[in-house]
Amino acid sequence: MEVYRLWVLPFFYLLISYGAEVVAIKRHGLQSLVSQPYRTSYHFQPSENWMNGPMYYKGVYHFFYQYNPYGALWGNISWGHAISYDLINWLHLDIALMPDQPYDINGCWSGSATISPNGKPMILYTGGDTKKHQVQNLAFPKNVSDPLLIEWVKSSHNPLLTPPKGIDTSSYRDPSTAWMGTDGEWRVVIGSEIDHHGYAILYKSKDFIRWSRASKALHFSNKTMMWECPDFFPVTVNGKNGLDTSVVGKNVRHVLKASFSSHDYYIVGNYDPKTDQYDVGTDFMDSNDVSLRYDYGKFYASKSFYDGGKKRRILWSWISEGDGDSNDIKKGWSGLQSIPRSIWLSKNGKQLVQWPIKELEKLRTKKVHYVNKELRGGSMLEISGITASQADIEVTFSLLNLSEAYLLKEVVDPQLLCTKYNVSVSGSLGPFGLLILASKDLREYTAVFFRVFRVNNSFHLLMCADQSRSSLRPEVEKSIYGAFLDLDPRPTKISLRSLIDHSIIESFGGDGLACITSRVYPKLAIEGQAHLYAFNNGTQSLSISSLSAWSMKRAQIVPIGKRRKPIK
Ligand SMILES: *[C@@H]1O[C@H](CO)[C@@H](O)[C@H](O)[C@H]1NC(C)=O
Ligand SMILES: *[C@@H]1O[C@H](CO)[C@@H](O)[C@H](O)[C@H]1NC(C)=O
Ligand SMILES: *[C@@H]1O[C@H](CO)[C@@H](O)[C@H](O)[C@H]1NC(C)=O
Ligand SMILES: *[C@@H]1O[C@H](CO)[C@@H](O)[C@H](O)[C@H]1NC(C)=O
Ligand SMILES: *[C@@H]1O[C@H](CO)[C@@H](O)[C@H](O)[C@H]1NC(C)=O
Ligand SMILES: *[C@@H]1O[C@H](CO)[C@@H](O)[C@H](O)[C@H]1NC(C)=O
Ligand SMILES: *[C@@H]1O[C@H](CO)[C@@H](O)[C@H](O)[C@H]1NC(C)=O
């Protein structure tokens, strides 16, 4: 992914690489010597944090991330490495890849892992070479019998790929996980920009070492600029099971994701493995309200991988801060990972559905539960008895009568609708939802809510995450995010799940049809001072058919190996 833009703050990253470990140790040992109200408890936070390849191998999940081991200046970008048995609790291992060769001396940048048919993991990554050109390199484990894959060896054939003529040497990066065609040849796509258009350039290889560029790109768009971190993978029609990246067939569709304009957009289409033709109905940016995104809040440079152990595809993303640079320096860390999500194709085949991995539920502890509770227009219900700053909540609202849905003349950008029809604008059906990380006096809260609109004779369910009142601190980002939920034809039961972890709220509307991740930095609503409410600010009554909320335990994220030693 983009190396320069993310490095806008070279100085602050050196603090993170040191500071995060200090904080981690304090959390585990001496507890809170420093006040860290925004430090999360069950989200994975490496020291520095850009996505590389996640992977499942011999019962172990591996996560690689960008890291500067020397810290002192921007540079020496390496692959940090952490492992897990459940994607929730993590151990940090030694660095997997260091920039020490002419083809990567200016950084071991993002890439992806691929597992060969005989079970051997391989990493393709972008290197910054001596001329600072982006080139693609290969590495493999020293000892494939070791499930921890601690040591990695770079291929003597590196660099495998250098920027072809006509492609900017700084717009050629982020190789995807490779897949094998029915002809036995490998394919991989690389993110690029050609003539100001976003591209997934396709390469083929018989041996994973010698690659040739296909005459046509897998896909491109003249409505976007540079594509970063392209991801291309199959999904099953009718089912939640994931598929290995090489699977093709009749009941399979293919998803292409590209990261651009600060968001992760995706399209669903049909891939012909013989011709490498990829056909989509709706393309990137065809129009604002049909452009599919994994998440309509903060979520960038995600990657998916196939978890062969549990036969599922998992999506994982980097979530940046919105707290301002100087506060990041004070905090001593920046950025974190979303909770890994299982993804599958929706029943109507038009989009993906996302749900937090089952393993997260192991962290649930104290529970409160309600059924069939009326929520009159203009009322609120406090969800008390759990730690509202560190919680998991699932609620289902039932609407009794849709006939009073607000009539809209046309479908417009959902984000604009959420701004115009905010939580104080009382309609008939909505706003209703949750007030999260709320202070007792309601001077602070993040409202995650729904509203039902009618356009001609069809209903449109709007989901909003409004951070405008999330903090009394003026300097923090306070975006209002919105998305439509494709809950046709009559949205009478509407579910919402929110994962709340101090400074992050990940919300899943309509059982995972639309997701919005918020980063918030309350001044009052921290730790024990945070409250959680269900609310209905519409005029019509509705009912909560069920609500369950849990306090969440802290995940174990333990530094081991060399990284444990102080960094000079
Ligand atoms: C990169 O690492 C080398 C040691 O291998 C060190 O001398 C140099 O200062 C480092 N550069 C940066 C920018 O961290
Ligand atoms: C490779 O890893 C296996 C499993 O951890 C171990 O038993 C073996 O000694 C390792 N081989 C070498 C050469 O390190
Ligand atoms: C963009 O690409 C599409 C399809 O490839 C093509 O039909 C269209 O004319 C292009 N538009 C521009 C402005 O280049
Ligand atoms: C729904 O609301 C409309 C308008 O207020 C009303 O005319 C209708 O009788 C209601 N239907 C039911 C089943 O309550
Ligand atoms: C609503 O109906 C009108 C009249 O039939 C039509 O012109 C308009 O395009 C429709 N709007 C939408 C958003 O479907
Ligand atoms: C909601 O919108 C109204 C009207 O645009 C505005 O006056 C008000 O401040 C907004 N309230 C919130 C909570 O954003
Ligand atoms: C509900 O709307 C009223 C005004 O219509 C507003 O004063 C109040 O703050 C809103 N409730 C919430 C929770 O925002």
Describe the structure.
This protein is mainly β and 568 residues long. It contains three helices and 37 strands. It folds into two domains: 22-356, Tachylectin-2, Chain A (5 Propeller), CATH 2.115.10.20; 362-552, Exo-inulinase, domain 1 (Jelly Rolls, Sandwich). The chain has helices spanning 10-28, 325-331, 414-420, and strands at 51-57, 60-67, 78-84, 90-97, 108-115, 121-128, 134-141, 152-154, 172-173, 179-180, 186-194, 197-205, 211-213, 219-221, 228-236, 252-260, 263-272, 277-280, 300-307, 312-319, 336-337, 341-345, 352-356, 364-375, 379-382, 390-398, 406-408, 432-438, 446-455, 458-466, 480-485, 493-501, 504-509, 514-519, 531-536, 542-552, 557-559. The strands form seven sheets. Strands 25, 27, 28, 29, 30, 31 and 35 form a seven-stranded mixed beta sheet that branches. It is globular, with a radius of gyration of 23 Å. Bound molecules: 2-acetamido-2-deoxy-beta-D-glucopyranose (NAG) (7 copies). The site of one 2-acetamido-2-deoxy-beta-D-glucopyranose has 3 residues, from loops.
CATH fold-level label of the largest domain: Tachylectin-2, Chain A
Number of domains: 2
Uncertain segments: 1-34, 562-568
Please tell me how large the radius of gyration is.
Answer: 23 Å
Quaternary organisation of the protein chains: single chain
List the total number of helices.
Answer: 3
Cα(first) to Cα(last) distance is 28 Å
Query: Which cofactors or ions or other ligands sit in this model?
Result: 2-acetamido-2-deoxy-beta-D-glucopyranose
CATH architectural name of the largest domain: 5 Propeller
Beta-strand level of the residues, as a percent range? Answer: 35-45%
Mean pLDDT: 88
Categorize the overall geometry: globular
Just give the CATH class of the largest domain: Mainly Beta
CATH superfamily of the largest domain: Glycosyl hydrolase domain, family 43
Largest sheet: 7 strands, mixed
By secondary-structure content and strand pairing, the structural class works out as mainly beta
**Total E-strand runs:** 37
* Helix share, percent: under 10%
